[in-house]
Structure formats: C-alpha cells, structure tokens
Amino acid sequence: RGTALQLLFKMSRSCSKVGDPRPGQPYKGGNFCAFLPDNQEGLKTAKLLKKAFEHGLTFQIKSYNGEETVTWGFIPHKTSWDGGKARNGYPDALYLHEVSTVL
C-alpha cells in the first residue's frame, strides 16, 4: 500500500458570509483529514489542493436542522487510507486523475 501524506484541516467556529446559506449566522467548525499517496503524483495533487484551500474552494457551509456547519465542498478528498472507493479510501486507481481534473 505504501506511505501516505496526511492533510489536516482545522476549521474554527466563525460567522458565515454572503453566499453561504444564512449570511451572518455563526457556524460550527471542525477537524478534517484527507490522505494522498506519498509519491510524485500525490505531492503534485497536494499542491493543487493547497491552492484550492487558499481560494476557499475546499469547504462549504451547509445548514442542518437550522444550524450551520462546515462540510467538505465539491472537491473529492480521500478521508480514509483504506476501505476502497466505497469507503472513500484507497485503493482507488482513478482518484488522482479524477481530483486533478476537478482541480
């Protein structure tokens, strides 16, 4: 299986902005983790994911039962290092190509 790069995101509690479901409302943050293979293609993808994060494209705010919360956005991330595609993990031979296309 090889070694992995682990991407950690800590999203603080804050207030939503224009374009979010309920602008000006507080939302819950959270801790998020994603995995990439530790190889040249994984490193390249990590750099693209970093740019997406810096441009505010990685996460979104969704409303659940009247409460706003941070969730993953539309860019697919592998949140498990194993379990295959069905569990959002590896092995998934097409993932790096698919995420690069999205990015």
TrEMBL record:
Subcellular localization(s) per the UniProt record: Cytoplasm
Domain of life of the native organism: Eukaryota
Predominant location category: cytoplasm
Gene Ontology CC: one annotated term: cytoplasm
UniProt-recorded Gene Ontology molecular function terms: ligase activity; ubiquitin protein ligase activity; zinc ion binding
GO biological process: Notch signaling pathway; protein ubiquitination
Pathway of action: Protein modification; protein ubiquitination
Top-level enzyme category: transferase
EC number(s) reported in the record: 2.3.2.27
Reactions it catalyzes: S-ubiquitinyl-[E2 ubiquitin-conjugating enzyme]-L-cysteine + [acceptor protein]-L-lysine = [E2 ubiquitin-conjugating enzyme]-L-cysteine + N(6)-ubiquitinyl-[acceptor protein]-L-lysine
The UniProt record lists the keyword Zinc-finger: yes
Keywords: Cytoplasm, Ligase, Metal-binding, Transferase, Zinc, Zinc-finger
InterPro entries per the UniProt record, alphabetical: Deltex_C (IPR039396), Deltex_C_sf (IPR039399), Deltex_fam (IPR039398)
Signal peptide start and end residues: none
Annotated Deltex C-terminal domain residues: 5-101
Family, as annotated: Belongs to the Deltex family.
Protein's name according to its UniProt entry: E3 ubiquitin-protein ligase
Organism: Hylia prasina
